[in-house]
Here is the input.
Amino acid sequence: MEPHKPPPPSRQSEGCLTVAIRVPLRIVVLVLVVPVRMVWDALVAAGRLVRDTVLRPLGRALLWLGKALFVWPFVGLWRYVLVPVGKALAWLGTVLVLVPAGWLHRYVLAPVGHAVAWLAHGAGAGLAWVYARVLRPIGRAVGRAVVWLLRCLFVVPARWLYTWILAPVGRALAWCARGLGRLLERTATGIGLALYWTLRVLLVLPALALWRWVLAPVGRLLAVVVHEVGDALGHAWRIAGRISRAVGRALGTLFRWIFVEPVRWVYRSVLTPVGHAVRAAVLRPVAQGARVIGLAVREALAGARDSVRQARADVRRMLFGEPARPAAVDRREPQGPAARTLGSSTTALTKD
Here is the structure.
């Protein structure tokens, strides 16, 4: 079963004012939008042509030039200068700083630190014994005496003052404050009610009447006009696009018939046969003759190089004589097949 489709919106609920505004508005907007849409489509086509033929190759060339001027030199500087220098500096830092620092820490600072820690531990143990056996009992006795003295001098008088003086006075003040608060609350309630009804009669009711009987109808009318203008612009833009595409196709067909097809016919019927004839009658014989001439020239150059090499060797021999031949050296190891079996008919492993 086909999915249930919602029914199209009905236009019966639209008033006569909406219909009366829509038709002339769409006609006027269509007449105004068609030239704008045709100019827009022409600019889009020209922009695409400029992008594909000028901007994209120019961008690629600028990208390659930027890489050649900025990226590749920095890559070469990083790879062949900074990295080796950094490795050399790291090695020098390891040899000159880290290794001596490790040796100093291991053989000097660590033993000194252990000795200082041992001394500090002993001193701490002594101070802990003094604190536990001497200072803490004295502190407890003094603390108890101070607490008893503070209790007698401050806590007992403060408690008596709070119980018999401050608490009754505070209760009386709280009762007075509650009564004053109730009086102020009732006064504020009366004033608020009076202000509420005054503002309602003077401002709210007139504003409500203005909104209900003036602004709301005008807003609905303006909303209808704005909606119809937007709908007319969209409808006109779509129709103008179709008209622009039809005009573009017609101009393209006319351009093809007037320019492209004659040029294609001339290329196919005239230039191609003439080019084939020129290639068969002129270019191929010229290429064969050039190959023969090149072969002869290469042979002549090879003979001339051999002659020059022989003459140079003769001149060297006349000036410096024959080069000394290396003297034969008596090698201790046997030569030829006898070297494998040490001159016997058996191998070294089966030799008696």
Remarks:
- The chain has one domain: 19-308.
